Hints:
globular; 2 domains
Amino acid sequence: MNSVCRAVALRISELLKQKGMTQYRLAMNSGITHSTLKNIMHETIKDSLLSTVILIASGFDMTVSEFLDSPLFLEENLNI
């Protein structure tokens, strides 16, 4: 079983390969610094927010996808 940090890094790697995208391009497209993305990929950032959301969704007996399936989480409705 992977940690959340590892799962995020693996998923990013999969998507980078599928889309033929570099980490640098992803950083530019997502608005985060390249160094932040590198830290995520090397699992040196231990951001607990996703872990917390997973636990909260589990507390509601639902998946994270179900929890996030709301207009509240649409990009145009968020201040990111």
